[in-house]
């Protein structure tokens, strides 16, 4: 259900953006249950020059889905993703984004930390990195450790500005 809500949010933003949006970029909304074949397809696309915007769906994942997702992201993309932190355990209700625009967006369902480990940290929640941009091969990924898409249909101005900037960014 989360992936559907996220995809709906992004599609609404895309319907109102300029023609330069999503140039060479694909959105994977609410990701928590990636199958091997799909994962390898995405990894190949990244190596060939595509950028992926991956929005974590771990806020609503089972423990086994979470473990599989973390392992797969490490193997495919070299991301060290931590254990999900529930909303009530975060120090701050907002995620501070530093790229592609500087803004603060309320988090939805907590956050999943990511080790910076040479990646370009683009957002933090409660001081911990939760979003990174990483070049891989001729492409790369932007991994966001908290759902953004479900905030978009509600008209959250900062979330919409961020989503629009993410889809129009020059990666």
> Can you give the helix content as a percent range?
25-40%
CATH architecture label = 3-Layer(aba) Sandwich
Question: Secondary-structure element order, as H and E?
Answer: HEHEHEEEEEH
CATH superfamily: Class I glutamine amidotransferase (GATase) domain
The number of helical runs is: 4
CATH C-level label: Alpha Beta
Number of strands: 7
Q: Biggest sheet, strands in spatial order?
A: 1-2-7-6-5-3-4
Rounded to an integer, what's the Rg over CA atoms? 15 Å
Strand content: 15-25%
CATH topological fold name: Rossmann fold
Q: Helix/strand-derived class?
A: alpha/beta
Largest sheet: 7 strands, mixed
Give the overall shape, derived from the CA principal axes.
globular
Contiguous low-pLDDT stretches (5 residues minimum) are none
How many distinct domains? 1
State the gist of this model.
With 171 residues, this protein is of the alpha/beta class.
Provide a descriptive summary of the structure in words.
The protein is an alpha/beta fold. The chain has a single domain (2-168), classed as Class I glutamine amidotransferase (GATase) domain (Rossmann fold), CATH 3.40.50.880. The protein is 30% helix and 25% strand. The protein has helices at residues 2-14, 36-47, 63-77, 157-168; strands spanning 25-31, 51-56, 94-97, 103-106, 120-125, 128-136, 139-144. It has a 7-stranded mixed beta sheet with strand order 1-2-7-6-5-3-4, with helices on both faces. The model has no long low-confidence stretch (mean pLDDT 86).
């Amino acid at each position: 259900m989360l992936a559907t809500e996220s995809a709906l949010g992004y599609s609404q933003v895309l319907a109102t953006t300029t023609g330069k949006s999503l140039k060479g970029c694909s959105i994977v909304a609410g990701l928590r249950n990636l199958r091997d074949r799909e994962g390898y397809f995405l990894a190949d696309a990244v190596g060939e020059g595509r950028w992926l915007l991956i929005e974590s769906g771990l806020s609503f994942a089972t423990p086994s889905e979470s473990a599989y997702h973390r392992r797969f992201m490490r193997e495919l993309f070299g991301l060290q993703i931590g254990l999900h932190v529930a909303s009530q355990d975060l120090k701050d209700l907002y995620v501070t984004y530093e790229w592609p625009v500087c803004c603060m967006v309320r988090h939805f369902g907590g956050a999943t930390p990511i080790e910076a480990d040479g990646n370009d940290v683009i957002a933090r929640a409660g001081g911990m990195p939760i979003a990174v941009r990483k070049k891989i091969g001729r492409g790369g990924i932007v991994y966001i450790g908290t759902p953004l898409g479900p905030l978009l249909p509600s008209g959250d101005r900062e979330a919409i500005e961020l989503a629009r900037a993410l889809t129009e960014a020059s990666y």
